Amino acid sequence: MPQITALYAAPLILLFLLLTLRVMALRFPKQVMIGTGGDPALERAARVQANFAEYVPLFLVALLAAELCGAAPWTLHTAGIAMVLGRLCHAAGVSRAPDILALRGLGMVLTLGALVAAAAMALMAGLR
User: Fold this and answer.
1) Whether the predicted model's global pTM rises above the 0.90 cut
2) How many Cβ atoms are within 10 Å of 16's Cβ, its own excluded?
């Protein structure tokens, strides 16, 4: 059973739902159902959500593959924690205008590091 992947999938999904609700909350009062209508706050919220959606699914697939192939639990947890923290930092850093560059940068470093780690673990576990 892929319990470690499930442990990190749950908070990541909850964060995605929060980001989605924020986009929805900005869309309805402005009556913008497609795109951002040129609204800077909606553009920013939509990009935070889209950026999340671009990275997290690939990470979870790689983490799951690594776990199913027998990667060491501590490596899976390290990557999972990095991804959760990375996505939180990125969302906090980009959600404000102007960006909080330190949080945005840290978020991307953690996100990309977690993604590389998960891919490497999946590859190494798959080659065994």
Assistant:
1) yes
2) 17
